[in-house]
Here is the input.
Amino acid sequence: MNLFDLKDTLTALVNYALRLPALFRLVSDRYRRVPPIKGLTPVSFACEAPTALGLTVAAAGDVLVQTSILRHPQTVASGFASLFASVAGVAGAADLSVVNFEGVVDSIKPSGFGAYAYPPALVTALKEAGFDVLQLGNNHALDRGPNGVDETIRTVEEAGMGAVGTKTQRDADRPWYTLSTVQKAGRAYTIAW
Here is the structure.
């Protein structure tokens, strides 16, 4: 995901969130004008916090695991964790970090081609690498149907992470976003993803 895709994704998320009964504010000094999205009210960006109290957000692109990589944990002692070793420092050092999870969790029959379904250990490895939020809303979110979505969200939440972009079958009224609180310089910031 390049910077422009990230900006467009965040803009769409912010504009959509403003239609929900939740207070959502994104602080940014870089992008002052946001192109309107049909049917949505544009949000304006402003920077009110002193620059000395910056908040670090790390975002990573797709985690899409092919069949050969699903076998990887059997070949090294650190399992899936070794796949994310090169980004763990960045993700772990950020105040908040998010990654796009292309697929679902299936603890019974993982697969790495066509319908992407991963063992729960992959989510654990992402948490250990320092990621806080998994973005689940993508073209592989329903690769195992609604039950796959349910198992994925349950696994992500049990790992202590936020899940955004999908919701369980039972949570029809649950928002599709997640709230994360970050402590920085003695202040608490709540961010909606």
